[in-house]
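Folding Task

Wanted — backbone structure
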Amino acid sequence: MKISIIIPVYNSQDYLRDCVKSITSQTFRDVEVLLIDDGSTDDSGALCDALAAEDQRVIAIHKPNGGTSSARNVGVERATGDYLTFCDNDDFLRDDQCLERVAQSLSSRPVDVLMHDNCMYDDPQGTVIPPKETNLAEKVAALSKADAILEVISQGLMARAVWNKVVRTELVRSNGIVFPEGMRNEDTDWSASVLEYAQSVGWLDDPYYCYRKGHGYAQTSKPVTRVMTDDLAAIIGRHVMAIDNLGLSDLDAHAIHAYLAYPFIVWMGQTGSMGECRKDDRVSLEMCAHAPLLLAADEDPAVHLAATAYRVVGFWCTARLLGVAFRLRGLFGRHHVS
């Protein structure tokens, strides 16, 4: 079994070597690291070449700047592994046996999508912050795809980030799953497609991925804009339609609705915080029409709270309440909607 790890690189000379070394130092050796230099303007491109020269499993690819989605799509095209996953250029793997445990899990129970949690790395403090310990792998292994997705969601563990998933390469290619270029919230879109087409999913009780926070280059440090919320609304609407077009069973459809429900309340909170969720706004009216369907799929604890408010005070008041919660950052901190 070979695992491809795709790393879009843009102006990350301060972190890239540590990121790559955390992968090449793994005890599991059958790995390729695809460094997609997306038109960096610092020394990251040269560093990609240097890292490739040091280890033949590292491949440096240079392209004009096109954004994260464009870089990831190039990586997927070039990947030769049986499975693929992603790493951001400032993040890293927690210890040198992470991929060994991933490979063991996939060997003992091959699945299309293996999900896992992640640690946070506080960059200013230099400390790893682990999440709450999970013990879900055996339970999820005994469930159907839909029930497994719903179980992960009900535990508040379903991340939309793509680096929380190890995916069978053939699933991605045979179904033409690509990242949408020129828009944000691309992880939410790609992960939704993967879960729609997957026949089986698994869970690994190992939060081996370390997500670096607290530095100015992090995506979470960027302010929310109307363009970003419109992108998220478009993605949610597209996948609501895709569920019907794919002819999913009722239970599989409910599982994807439950997956979309959290990004839906994120949209409500983001637009509510900006005063952009309005009765005279076309996008807001379209999202309001999705509310009965998506908020009925309230397995996620955060969604359940929002759905309870929705049933009491309606869509528009709930959006305002979620806007307050979004400004306080208390509700939306764990799911990595991007």
Summary: The chain is about 50% helix and 15% strand.
